[in-house]
UniProtKB/TrEMBL annotation:
<dbReference type="InterPro" id="IPR018214">
    <property type="entry name" value="GluRdtase_CS"/>
</dbReference>
<dbReference type="Pfam" id="PF05201">
    <property type="entry name" value="GlutR_N"/>
</dbReference>
<dbReference type="GO" id="GO:0019353">
    <property type="term" value="P:protoporphyrinogen IX biosynthetic process from glutamate"/>
</dbReference>
<dbReference type="InterPro" id="IPR036453">
    <property type="entry name" value="GluRdtase_dimer_dom_sf"/>
</dbReference>
<dbReference type="InterPro" id="IPR015895">
    <property type="entry name" value="4pyrrol_synth_GluRdtase_N"/>
</dbReference>
<dbReference type="InterPro" id="IPR015896">
    <property type="entry name" value="4pyrrol_synth_GluRdtase_dimer"/>
</dbReference>
<dbReference type="InterPro" id="IPR006151">
    <property type="entry name" value="Shikm_DH/Glu-tRNA_Rdtase"/>
</dbReference>
<feature type="active site" description="Nucleophile">
    <location>
        <position position="50"/>
    </location>
</feature>
<feature type="domain" description="Glutamyl-tRNA reductase N-terminal">
    <location>
        <begin position="6"/>
        <end position="154"/>
    </location>
</feature>
<dbReference type="GO" id="GO:0050661">
    <property type="term" value="F:NADP binding"/>
</dbReference>
<dbReference type="Pfam" id="PF01488">
    <property type="entry name" value="Shikimate_DH"/>
</dbReference>
<dbReference type="GO" id="GO:0008883">
    <property type="term" value="F:glutamyl-tRNA reductase activity"/>
</dbReference>
<feature type="domain" description="Tetrapyrrole biosynthesis glutamyl-tRNA reductase dimerisation">
    <location>
        <begin position="318"/>
        <end position="415"/>
    </location>
</feature>
<comment type="function">
    <text>Catalyzes the NADPH-dependent reduction of glutamyl-tRNA(Glu) to glutamate 1-semialdehyde (GSA).</text>
</comment>
<keyword id="KW-0627">Porphyrin biosynthesis</keyword>
<comment type="similarity">
    <text>Belongs to the glutamyl-tRNA reductase family.</text>
</comment>
<dbReference type="InterPro" id="IPR036291">
    <property type="entry name" value="NAD(P)-bd_dom_sf"/>
</dbReference>
Amino acid sequence: MAILTLGVNHTTAPVSIRERLAFPAEQLQSALRDLIDLPQVGEAAILSTCNRTEVYCELDGRDQRPIVDWMCDQRQFDDQDISQYLYSHFDAGTIRHMFRVACGLDSMILGEPQILGQMKTAYQAAREAGTVGKILTKLFHRTFAAAKKVRTDTAIGCSPVSVAFAAIRLAQRIFDDLGDLTAILVGAGETIELTARHLTENRIGHLIIANRTFDRAHTLANQFGGFAISLEELPKHLARADIIVASTGSPLPILGKGSFESALRSRRHKPMFIVDLAVPRDIEPEVEQLQDVYLYTVDDLQHTVEENLKTRQEAALQAEEIIDLEVEHFLSWLRAQAATETIRDVRRQAELHRDAALQRALRELRRGKSAEDTLRWLADTLTNKIIHAPSSQIWQAGVNERADIVAVARELFQLKDPDT
């Protein structure tokens, strides 16, 4: 038996490959059932996110070729087109990899917390499909426990390490509750998308996305439950904004001091939190001179991000030490499973001897044999039956000069050293 991880992530494959290998949620159940039908596969789960697709399998043997072939068939790839992007781990490598992924140590953003929820979703999908058993169930549970321990005992997730996340954390310091606020995001690129995600996760009240290309703004707004406007409409909506985050590729400022003066009058000088993440700037620097405006640029946040990244990197070293211990704990459990069947067989054999001897003893009692004689016979018979096989094997080991087996027998039966 082996435990395999096979997959791609943001470090091994470009987005064009990752998006083709991704498993949409509605296809996951059927894919899992198809995977478990392979004769080599005992258990299986699939983790599929925008940055990684990984298959976790309990295999009969260590041949990953059937899983590679299955993946190619599922996602319509030729083997030669995908093999260069794939990585694999077995056994202890798989355990360590899953722990590191769940802790955010293998993420694009070090320590990001979303991946743990995605792993829990992957496990739940496999449970519903009936494709996880004793081994993977235990492994996922230990993975979640390891991630919780890392987040509890280290600072891996305490400090924002993207300017978008840092901006939202700063907004939370200025405003107690985002639920009653309106945010306007200017632009529709990756930074604005990440900002929209953070705002949504922190339950922003209303979200407006303004972009030069209205269709792109509309697509992004739909994704996060907001609504879209064009850049030309932005001045009309500015007074609604408690939070403004701008990040476009415009060579000139989009919003000037006059627009904010007008908006502040309409707001009766209710504070505005503004973050300009664009280079060149989207917002005129003079806006900072206005009262009731909190204006921050990308440079203001970058220092915070760099300090926080250093903190996370130090925490990551602590996390690796925790993972080392957790991996060893799981390996110990896994090794114990190899002995479980033997223990079960020993007990079953002893119970068969017991039942046979007991039935004969009961018959003797019914025939009138004394209880004392019957009990003596039962004790002698059980003793002889139980020790016969090991005694015979120990004797044979002595004949064959297998001192190692004799030593193991003494340890197994907790016998004192004959020389003491």
